[in-house]
């Protein structure tokens, strides 16, 4: 990986953290954000699934740290990293659906161990909505920037 790619990935990660941090909705077991929109947008445009996974996991990790949810940091790193990886594999509705399942099931399992079955069940709908909104926002942003001929990595 060259300096240009590393710089782009770092800036994209930072932008996702800022985007998620200022547009968040607290829930009883965590927070709902638009971080997933950035993950799905990256899956549509990046040239490598490892880049998408790194940005997804890294931005979720940093977001949790800054938002006061350090207990979620390492879980978010893994769950959102896998979400980004699967979203990239097939940047279609099927790929996005697999990515959503990975994220919802991943957080369900972790929430079950942290808060019990009631907390895990409570988290399903917010996580599904977060992904659905993320997909819609990513597709809209992608359509808007398509004509700009941006150079993604």
What does this structure look like?
The chain is built from six helices and two strands. With 153 residues, it is mainly alpha-helical. The protein has a single domain, classed as Orthogonal Bundle (Arp2/3 complex 21 kDa subunit ARPC3), CATH 1.10.1760.20. It has a two-stranded antiparallel ribbon. α2 (35-45) packs antiparallel against α3, α2 (35-45) runs parallel beside α4 and α4 (73-89) runs antiparallel to α5 (93-122). The longest helix is centred in the last third of the chain and has 30 residues, at 93-122. The protein is globular and about 45 Å long.
Short description:
The protein is mainly alpha-helical and 153 residues long. The protein is 78% helix and 5% strand. The protein is globular and about 45 Å long.
Average pLDDT number: 92
Largest sheet: 2 strands, antiparallel
- As residue ranges, the low-confidence spans are none
* Morphology: globular
Strands across the major sheet, in which order? 1-2
Tally of strands? 2
Fraction in helix: over 70%
Instruction: Give the name of the CATH architecture.
Output: Orthogonal Bundle
Identify the notable features of this structure and list them briefly.
Arp2/3 complex 21 kDa subunit ARPC3; mainly alpha; two-stranded antiparallel ribbon; 5% strand; 153 residues
Which helices and strands occur, and which strands form pairs?
Layout: H1 3-22, E1 24-27, E2 30-33, H2 35-45, H3 49-67, H4 73-89, H5 93-122, H6 124-146
Antiparallel strand pairs: 1-2
Helix pairs in contact: 1-3, 2-3, 2-4, 2-6, 3-4, 4-5, 5-6
């Amino acid at each position: 990986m060259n300096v240009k790619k590393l710089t782009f990935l770092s800036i994209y990660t930072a932008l996702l953290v800022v985007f998620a941090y200022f547009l968040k909705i607290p829930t009883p077991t965590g927070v709902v954000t638009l971080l997933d929109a950035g993950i799905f947008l990256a899956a549509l445009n990046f040239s490598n699934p490892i880049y998408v996974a790194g940005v997804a996991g890294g931005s979720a990790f940093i977001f949790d740290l800054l938002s006061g949810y350090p207990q979620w940091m390492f879980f978010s790193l893994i769950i959102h990293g896998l979400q980004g990886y699967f979203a990239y594999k097939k940047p279609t509705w099927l790929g996005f659906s697999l990515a959503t399942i990975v994220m919802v099931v991943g957080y369900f399992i972790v929430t079950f161990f942290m808060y019990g079955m009631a907390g895990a069940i409570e988290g399903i709908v917010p996580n599904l909505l977060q992904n659905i909104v993320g997909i819609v926002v990513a597709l809209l942003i992608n359509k808007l920037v398509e004509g700009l001929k941006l150079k993604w990595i």
